[in-house]
Amino acid sequence: MTASKAVMTLAGFVVLSALAAGCVSGKAMQRKETLLVAAGFKAIPAITSEQQWLIRTLPADKLSPITRMGKVYIVYPDHSSHVLYVGHDAEYRAYEQRAQAEGLESGAWESAWGDWDAK
Predict the structure, then answer these.
(1) Total domain count for the chain?
(2) pLDDT tier for residue 6 given thresholds of 50, 70 and 90
(3) Can you give the pLDDT at residue 99?
(4) In the beta sheet, which residues pair with residue 44?
């Protein structure tokens, strides 16, 4: 095999590996979103300027607590579809149980925010 063929083969392998990783990541995100809806989270299209701002500023693939009008909401932004998955503590707990049963990482919200609401 010539050096140029070896380089082309290696480049092809790298591209295919990157594409495969993207597919796996996308499927994992879809699985997470399916679990969120099954747990009671509402899928809300980001239409208003505030919702679009949340899509831009919230960390991807993380559940984040947001306080609005004195109520705490748990929000998961889907950056590619421009959808916010919104729930409360009860929906988060249901999601956490489903995620553990499915073998997905749970506790992302608590590890990211710590004991933020402790009294």
Answers:
(1) 1
(2) very low
(3) 87
(4) 84
